[in-house]
Amino acid sequence: MQVAANRVVHIHYTLKTDEGQVVDSSEGNAPLGYVHGSGSIIPGLEKALDGRNAGDRFEVSLTPEEGYGPRHEGLVQSVPLSAFEGLGELQPGMQFQAQTNEGPRVVTIAQVGDESVTVDGNHPLAGQNLNFEIEVDGVREASQEERNDGQVREEDDSAPKIVGADGNPAG
Length: 171
Fold this sequence. Notes:
Blueprint: E1 7-16, E2 22-25, E3 32-35, H1 43-49, E4 57-62, E5 76-80, E6 95-100, E7 103-112, E8 116-120, E9 130-141, H2 144-149
Antiparallel strand pairs: 1-2, 1-3, 1-9, 4-9, 5-8, 6-7, 7-8
């Protein structure tokens, strides 16, 4: 079955930086499942998967604009150390959810000073090319409920089963 809108797609993936460092991978885990066309994965990867078939293996490199976007230096701010009172010892790399004018945003501590903390609201992969190795593990029609909210429900026994590359139920 071909990847298209309103289908549940399961992929195995490895994400690497331009330097070849593995950033994320589904290796050793269940494949990632998503509803194609729901916007639940980055736009460039969804576009690269469109029209693929169960069993397809391919590599795709995405620009920052196709992935997590460019870095925005305006999302790097200095915050008084007192704003983190009661949270223990702060270290670079720690992440917190902050309330912003645009709603909640995850921020990463970039630097801890004597009186202030520098936080970065950019996605950690913003501004970077994303290099994926992909295997389409299975494709099936999404249930009406999955289409409505874009959430995959594998435990739903009434949902159509994942079809593997050989046309038989996968798994």
